[in-house]
Amino acid sequence: MPSNTKYGRATLISALFVGGGQIYSRRYWAGLVFACLFYGSIGLMLVIWTGVNEAFWGLIAAWILVWLYNVYDAFKGANYHKPPCEKSCPAGISPWIYINLIAADNDEKYPHVPFFGTLEHICPAPCEDECTRRGIDSAVAIKYLKRCVSMEEPPTIERKRKEKIAIIGAGPCGLSAAYSLSNKGYDITVYEREEKPGGILTTLIPSFRLPDAMLNEEIENMLRERVELKCGIEVGKDTEFEDILREYDAVFVAIGAWKATTLGIPGEENALSGFDVLRKIKEGKTFKLGRVGVIGGGNTAIDVARSLLRQGNEVSIYYRRRIMDMPAEHEDRIEAQEEGIEIVQLTTPLEIHKDRVTMTKTECLEGRAGAVGLVKGSEYEVEIDALVITAGQWPESSFLKDHLKTDKRGRIVTKNGKTSHPKVFAGGDAVLGSATVAHAVGQGLAVADRIDAHLRKVPGFIYNILRRDFLPAIKLIPMRKAQRIEIPHRKIEERIKDFAEVELDASNEDLRNEACRCLTCPLKFRP
Questions:
Q1: DSSP character at residue 237
Q2: Is the dihedral of CA 206, 208, 213, 219 positive or negative?
Q3: Any residues with CB less than 8 A from the CB of 79 and at least 6 apart, and which?
Q4: Among the listed residues 334, 300, 119, 316, the one whose alpha carbon sits nearest the alpha carbon of residue 205
Q5: Please, what are the domains in the chain?
Q6: How far is the C-alpha of 168 from the C-alpha of 254, rounded, in Å?
Q7: pLDDT tens readout for residues 340-361
Q8: Tens digits of per-residue pLDDT, 122-169?
Q9: How many Cβ atoms are within 10 Å of 439's Cβ, its own excluded?
Q10: Residue 116 in contact with residue 176, Cβ under 8 Å?
Q11: Which of 29, 311, 377, 414 is deepest in the core (most CB within 10 A)?
Q12: Contacts for 503 with CB less than 8 Å, ≥ 6 apart
């Protein structure tokens, strides 16, 4: 990544010689355009000089504007039209850039991103859903290629600011914000009610999807020298929110969404909570339940089913919409079905008994956004030993109700990260409801910038204008006619017996060949 020193030199050169900074940065055409426009108009004026008049003063104003924009352009560096993969990434990552670095065997490293390896394992990859390559054959394996990206080390913290910031919640959103704000020079205190940081990543996500060693290493990278972590402290119980407001210059609320949604049907007290099951399995408990039904279609439902399967249970998933409408990650659903887990679509429970569940068929013709209707007369009984409900979750924000505006589901109401309290910001699942880790990371980084702008008293639009994009020397890759990589997996009969990671590493050659399938859209198209 071009250093701040290089940007500074380019800016200074353009301030003295219009277009010079762009040429120094090897943006030759941009530099020539600025130079020709500025110096060419001066030369033309000298040829047709008629004395000082209104047109002359207008030309002076135009020169000043061109000079200012030339300096700003040198400061910002190269710009480009964002391709679909980058536009669709909730974490703000530029997939096409790191893929190009892999394909071109470029030694330049991609800027450090919080939880980058975690996203490689558990992100639903909306970037692949929008990949331009799908118009030819199939999307580039953008998510999988993260595992061979060479990334910069976390930057050294050089600046020091006097303001102190509190972050409530040490999940992916809170830790991403802590990482970003500590890099900006702030002293950060993170309050976490659990005994260790990581939020759902540490507490719930099974290790066959997210290896514990890798996650712990990434969390360590978030805890910089100016980040103080206070675990086992629940705000609103062990310490008061009012005390935090008085002690800190800004507060970021990233409490996640831990309150389980209920179905509101008879006998629901006989069912288990998906969150409770996953938490206890991570703590080492074994569930010998027998025949288990799991209600839901999200990642939690898939994780519960696959975890219980690995403990020797017979598991089926019941989902009220079609399988194609399931919000769970597509690849995880396919892996679950490969492992022998049956997914029964268009089915929902009506009543839960101790040894059986009354189910009914449903109809849903408009995908995830459409209403779900019950099919009259389609009720039937399912004999099971246990039922686990994973019907979604919402923030537990009751301790904030006297200070912040929330909606009827407990989500904190924000505008550009700001809450109804002037010192308090919020992000992640506390604002969005149950979303992905990519959304949490993206919100943590974005709101960190807004907190920084707020404390510096810099208007948001100016703060955004001064932000630079990372754009290394990108080479146009000749398009290859090749099929998408076959991601290697452990054998099914082996992986269902333990919690070791399911996906395996591909060879460097296969990964590079897959990266070469990228169309490098910004250099070819303007999608």
A1: T
A2: negative
A3: 469, 471
A4: 300
A5: 4-76 (no CATH), 84-151+478-524 (no CATH), 164-259+394-465 (3.50.50.60), 262-391 (3.50.50.60)
A6: 6
A7: 999 999 999 999 998 999 999 9
A8: 999 999 999 999 999 999 999 999 999 988 888 777 778 999 999 999
A9: 21
A10: no
A11: 414
A12: 121, 144, 487, 488, 489, 490
Question: What average pLDDT is seen over the chain?
Answer: 90
Joined together, the tokens standing for residue 178 give 């802590």
Report the DSSP pairing between strands 356-363 and 373-374. antiparallel
Alpha helices (runs of H) in 146-194, residue ranges in sequence order: 172-183
Is 251 in contact with 213 (CB distance < 8 Å)? no
What is the side-by-side order of every strand in the sheet holding 291-295? 272-273, 386-389, 291-295, 314-318, 342-344
- Mean pLDDT within 104-117: 90
Mean pLDDT on 407-430: 94
Separation CA 84–CA 121 (nearest Å) = 21
**pTM of the complete model:** 0.87
Kindly list the distances between the CA atom of residue 92 and the CA atoms of 89, 108, 118, 231, in Å, as whole numbers in the listed order. Answer: 5, 19, 15, 28
**Alpha carbon 52 to chain centroid, angstroms:** 57
The C-alpha atoms of residue 8 and residue 74 are separated, in whole angstroms, by 9
What the block records as the tokens of 162 is 């006097």
41 burial (CB, 10 Å; 0-12 / 13-18 / 19+) is middle
Give, as one character, the DSSP assignment of residue 37.
H
